[in-house]
Amino acid sequence: MAGGAAKASQLVSEPVAEAPISNSEARIKRLFYISLIIKGVDAVLQLVGGVLLLTLRSTQVDSAVRFLADHSYGGDLDDALFRHASGYLSHLTGGTIRFVAIYIIVDALLKLILIHEIFHKRYWAYIGLISILSVLVVYQTYRIILNHSVILMVLTAFDLVIIYLSAHEYRRHMMAVH
């Protein structure tokens, strides 16, 4: 009984030493950590975007989109991405912009915290990341059905890969503990 309690406390708070793994497992683990780094960079960019969205007025947001289109697309304001972003932003009210900004910031912070904890071998964070990404995948799938967004399809596929890799790594760690 005392041994089981010790193992449970390690899963919650203490990092556990890892058992040796095969070459294929090492490749999966490497892919997992690379995907986490990419997701972490995405979360940092998302956090910056959320803070900017929260601090800028709607006219400034529209100006920022125009600035990005001008510098990213060579001034092609007829670009589909620009038209989509500009059209979307023109329908947002101040309250909606605040809600979206806070949602983006909270989502980014949760991902950053969970990724940080996974890098520090806190195994509870695997379940948290899988849970949050699963909810996002369901919502993103709903949005894909409505909008047929190729970008969202790619992001959703990436999230599904991270969910799979997270579950794989979590199972591997649980097997090593037991």
Question: Topology, pairings included?
Answer:
Elements (H helix, E strand, L loop, with lengths): L1 H11 L10 H33 L2 H15 L7 H11 L3 H26 L4 H24 L2 H28 L1
Helix pairs in contact: 2-5, 2-7, 3-4, 5-6, 6-7
Silhouette: elongated
Average pLDDT, all residues: 80
Largest sheet: none
The residue ranges in which pLDDT falls below 50 over 5 or more consecutive positions are: none
The Rg value, from CA coordinates, equals 20 Å
Number of domains: 1
Per DSSP E runs of 2 or more residues, the count of β-strands stands at 0
The helicity comes to over 70%
- Which class of secondary structure composition applies to the elements? mainly alpha
β content, as a range?
Answer: under 5%
Distance between the termini: 13 Å
Tally of individual helices: 7
Element order: H for helix, E for strand: HHHHHHH
Describe the structure.
The protein has one domain. 83% of the residues lie in helices and 0% in strands. The chain is elongated, with a radius of gyration of 20 Å. Helix 5 (94-119) packs antiparallel against helix 6. The protein is an all-alpha fold and 178 residues long.
Essential attributes:
mainly alpha
Task: Describe the structure in brief.
With 178 residues, the protein is mostly helical. The chain has helices spanning 2-12, 23-55, 58-72, 80-90, 94-119, 124-147, 150-177.
